[in-house]
Amino acid sequence: MNLNIKNLSKHYGEEKALDNLDLTIHDMKSVAVVGPSGGGKSTLLRLIAGLETPTGGLVSVNGIPIDYAEKKLREYRKRIGLVFQSHNLFPHWSALKNITVPLVKVFGTNPEEAEEKARELLNRFGLGEHAHKLPVQLSGGQQQRISIARAMARQPEILLLDEPTSALDPQLTKEVLDMVIELKEEGTNIMMATHEMAFAKRAAEEVIFVDNGKIGGQERSEKFFEFGNNPRLDEFLSHIFE
Amino acid sequence: MKNLFTVKSYKDKPGLMSKWINVILVGLFIVAIFLLALASVGYKFNWLSVWVYRTKILRGYGITLLLAFFSIFISIFIGIVASAGLQSRITFFRYLSRAYVEGIRGTPFLVQITFFYFIIATAVGLENKFIVGVLILSIFTGAYVTEIIRGGIQSIPESQWITARSLGFSRLQTYQNIIFPQVFRRILPSLAGQMSSLVKDSSLLSIIAVSEVTMNVLEVNAINFRIFENLTVLMLGYLFITIPISLISKWLERKYYYES
Questions:
Q1: CB A10, CB A59: distance < 8 Å
Q2: Per residue in B106-156, pLDDT tens?
Q3: Which residue of B166, B169, B260 is in closest CB contact with A82?
Q4: Is residue A143 part of a domain?
Q5: Chain A residues contacting B, CB < 8 Å?
Q6: Average pLDDT, chain B
Q7: Structure pTM?
Q8: Residue A113 lies in a domain
Q9: Tell me, what's the ipTM?
Q10: Residue B7 and residue B90 share a domain
Q11: How many domains does chain A have?
């Protein structure tokens, strides 16, 4: 994936969630976004996902600038997969329908084809037996994996994951992260906000530190976790490894 | 033995045997109270005095059924439109819907019937009393339905709107596929209650001489003066409509069950 972000700002009233942020990502497969809560990670992902409109600035995804007019955004969102921390699935639909209905309604896929695709995805990630279960009958980890499968059903240019494991216990977290690694190895472009530093170090090619609404650091993952280059980052990392 | 009369927690259901024994007991209890009270008053029922007017009463009952049938659909339609109005981005529609809901819910039905019939219906030259009745009843109930639907929509968490948007659903598609099906399930019990009220409220249309069952029973009463027999028949007549509404609602609730 290629990302080109210039002067990106997002203000909520007085609060500046993002403040003239610049970021260039060139030809990366997997990027982890880390940083303190409230630092702007989520806002950044939501703007890249076309879920919110910026107060100012430009975002280009794979060379095409995002047009933030609502009509254009709806088209744009088809190119992107987005998974939130929790409550991704619609409670009145089975796992299968959660995947098929967006395909049918948003992409105009015919229902048989959508079902075939959904089943294939569920089977591939060992979720086939849960196809007809309602979200309430599934564990948090299964729900997140189904949400990721749903995002993958549209073959997104980028899969954006916004702290997908923050609401999960360590066991379920592992189950979700394993799926993310599998997707990465299959060649999916992934950008993931996370507090799982070990995962970021292992699975991401590049790590971005978002702090105070700006990019506070950007490194190849093998170098990112070295201390001594960046005081704010050192402070953040020292809290993690305490 | 104990299991016939009690359950462990209020969430448990009694067994089939226990259910029917208790249904019969409750029935006997209610009938016994009435009979005892009647015995002490010394009233003697004469059912034949109502029976001779059965055709007239049944004809009225038919009108009540039709009134209820049409009004249920129209009031729900009005409720959907007005609740959309309450959420509209156009301020005029928003205020208009609010004025409608508050105006109707804050004033007596009797007053509304009178104004609508003698002023509005007359002004537009609407003479068919049945149609006037259906309209008044629908407008009245629609205000309550509006609030029920609004509450239902607001009970759907914001996260579902955001998720739907991120998946590329339009606003209309989100309402159709995600919000309304869940709202429908959630508001069923209160909606059923409101529809039962509608059936009973239709009795007030007798004041503008819509020839429904209450009006006919009151006319019979003016001839035979057997008020308790007449009202018993009237009461049973309404129960025959309201109990099925309640049962249908319970059946639909089970059919669209998705939450634990």
A1: no
A2: 999 999 999 999 999 999 998 899 999 999 999 999 999 999 999 999 999
A3: B166
A4: no
A5: 49, 51, 74-75, 77-78, 80, 82, 84, 87-88, 90-92, 101-102, 105-107, 134, 136, 150
A6: 92
A7: 0.81
A8: no
A9: 0.91
A10: no
A11: 1
